[in-house]
Design a protein that fits this description.
235 residues; alpha+beta; L-fuculose-1-phosphate Aldolase; 7-stranded antiparallel sheet; globular
């Protein structure tokens, strides 16, 4: 069996979506990539999370062709493939229909960066894509979803903005590994909820200032980051 360890990591990341309340029914998926082997491991389509085993996960090549697995891969596979091709630094992708992040996607509004919790993880407002055209929807829909995400990142760094809202659809998030992608999806949902309640409390709230935003983001992610313990991965 190919890529045993990555299968286990991808399964655990998918189950993490369930544990953190980001899953509705069988919606959502996490994948991981082994770049040296040129293989992607992804959740199968429509399979209940609690029933999944490592052997159920599907292995594909970088074109989305199934290499190993008896089940059909996630219907969002082509979107994952597009992101792995465009963003070579990422090692995992997570897609959910989590309630608050999806609400922002349906409203077709970026999630504003109101405070330090948001700025700790996302360097500015989380972007929303353009609405997909009729031709994009009727064509290679999932691949075109990847295309509109990539267009939304013109001028943005996927390392400092590891998430996006697909208009009328929902969030995609990524990270250096499948587990980091799932963690980013969870944090995205938290800040989406906070932003909603911030506007409910005060509809005139303005975005965080750039000095405080930079301080919080860079203390965790900059070259001079000092958050966490020496020699340990920052969280």
């Amino acid at each position: 069996m190919l890529l045993t360890k990555l299968r286990e990591e991808v399964l655990e990341a998918n189950l993490d979506l369930l544990r953190k309340g980001l899953v509705i029914s069988t919606f959502g998926n996490v994948s991981g990539i082994a770049r040296e082997e040129k293989r992607i491991v992804i959740k199968p389509s429509g399979l209940p999370y609690k029933r999944m085993k490592p052997a159920d996960l599907v292995v594909t090549d970088l074109d989305g062709k199934v290499i190993e697995g008896k089940l059909r891969p996630s219907s969002d596979l082509a979107t994952h493939v597009a992101l792995y091709r465009e963003f070579p630094s990422i090692g995992g992708v997570a897609h959910t229909h989590s309630e608050y992040a999806t609400a922002w996607a349906q409203a077709r509004k970026p999630i504003p960066c109101f405070g330090t919790t948001h700025a700790d993880h996302f360097y500015g407002p989380v972007p929303v894509t353009e609405v997909m055209t009729e031709n994009e929807v009727n064509g290679e829909y999932e691949a075109n979803t990847g295309t509109v995400i990539i267009r939304a990142f013109d001028g943005l760094d996927p390392a400092t903005m590891p998430a996006v809202l697909v208009a009328n659809h929902g969030p995609f998030a990524w990270g250096s590994s499948p587990s980091k992608a799932a963690e980013t999806a969870w944090i995205l949902e938290v800040v989406a909820r906070m932003a909603y309640f911030t506007l409910v409390i005060n509809a005139d709230t303005s975005s965080i200032g750039p000095v405080l935003r930079d301080r919080h983001f860079l203390r965790k992610h900059g070259k001079d980051a000092y958050y966490g313990q020496p020699g340990k991965k920052k969280k």
